[in-house]
Amino acid sequence: MTDLELFLVVVSALCALYALFTFRASAHRLHYRDRPLFWRGVALPLGLGGLGLGLLAYALLTDTSTGVFWAAAALGALTAALAWLTELEPNRVVRWAYRTVKS
């Protein structure tokens, strides 16, 4: 494993941890009745983070090119960015999830 690959692994893992803890903190800021809608609303970013971690695990367990590490880092960064946007106003996610459930 090269230094670049190690750096990409660390970035991917830190982005996933940041997103997980940020989503959890955002959920705690909401009223208890809104939390299921919140988790339904952030299912897509959590899925992207899981896909990034899956790519990371695949790359670590097999002998792949550096491109897989780059893809995992990009998915991790996208998930962290969406977590940051969600942290700004978690009620926005709840309103969006409520509109999609209701229609």
Please, could you describe this protein's structure?
This protein is mainly alpha-helical. The protein is built from five helices and no strands. It has helices at 3-28, 35-41, 43-61, 66-88, 90-102. The N and C termini lie far apart (49 Å).
Write the layout of secondary structure elements.
Elements: H1 3-28, H2 35-41, H3 43-61, H4 66-88, H5 90-102
Helix pairs in contact: 1-3, 1-4, 2-5, 3-4
User: How many strands in all?
Assistant: 0
Global structural class: mainly alpha
Mean pLDDT value: 93
Oligomer category: single chain
The global form is: elongated
Largest beta-sheet characterization: none
CA-based gyration radius: 15 Å
Give the SSE string. HHHHH
Given as residue ranges, the uncertain stretches (5+ residues, pLDDT < 50) are none
Distance between the termini: 49 Å
Percent in strands: under 5%
Q: Which characteristics define this entry?
A:
103 residues; mainly alpha; 5 helices; 85% helix
In short:
This protein is mostly helical. It contains five helices and no strands.
